[in-house]
Each structure stands twice: as structure tokens, then as C-alpha cells.
Amino acid sequence: MLTARCIWQQAEHNAFTDLIWFQQALWCVFREGSAHVSPGGAFRLLRSADLGQSWHKAALISAGDCSYAGMVLHNNTLYISYYSSHAGKTAIYFIELAIAAAALN
């Protein structure tokens, strides 16, 4: 290991991370909530344009009871899949994010 640093701790529970290189930046997605299993959790998407030295909020994706986000990129589109449970049913969801170049500055 070369380095380890905390990049986010603004919620009581932050977990289930994924990290990817996309459009000349690192992107990190994870679940934040009040506890490991808690209603009202959401996915946070962070971006770092300086190889992880500083991180900035890119999106907050509210999804209720959500976990285990994974990311894939293709043709300037970022795809995120995740597990969620609503009204007693569980499912896998899929998000497609087209990141505009203007939003990256």
C-alpha cells in the first residue's frame, strides 16, 4: 500500500464503495446512511480531478434502502447498478449518467 486517506465521513455510516477512472478523474460511489441497514440511505457520487488529493460532490442519488453500487463506463456514459428494497420487495436497479463536459470544470 502506498497511501490510505479518508475521502468522506459526513454520514454516520458510509460503505459499499466502488471506484473508477472516467473523463480524466477518479469517481467514487458509495452508500451513506444513518446505519448499516437503515431507511433513507442514498448513494453519493464523488469526483477527484487530482488523483485523489481532494474530492468534490458530483451527485446524490436517493434510493431508500440501497446497497452495493457498482460502476461501468462506456462512450462517456457512467452506468451504476445497485440493490434496493422498497415496499417489501428487493430488486436490482440501473442508472445511466451522461456527464456533460461543462459539469466537470
Summarize the structure in short:
It contains no helices and 7 strands. It is mainly beta and 105 residues long. It has a single domain, classed as Lipocalin, CATH 2.40.128.
Describe the structure in your own words.
- It is built from no helices and 7 strands.
- It is mostly beta strands.
- The protein has a single domain (14-104), classed as Lipocalin (Beta Barrel).
- Strands 1-2-3-4 form a 4-stranded antiparallel beta sheet, with no helix packed on it. The chain has a 3-stranded antiparallel beta sheet with strand order 5-6-7, with no helix packed on it.
- It is globular and about 40 Å long.
Can you name the CATH architecture?
Answer: Beta Barrel
Q: How are the strands ordered across the major sheet?
A: 1-2-3-4
Distance separating the two termini: 30 Å
- The shape is globular
CATH topology grouping: Lipocalin
Topology, element by element:
Elements lengths: L12 E10 L2 E9 L8 E7 L7 E7 L2 E10 L2 E10 L2 E10 L7
Keywords:
mainly beta, four-stranded antiparallel beta sheet, three-stranded antiparallel beta sheet, 7 strands, Lipocalin, 105 residues
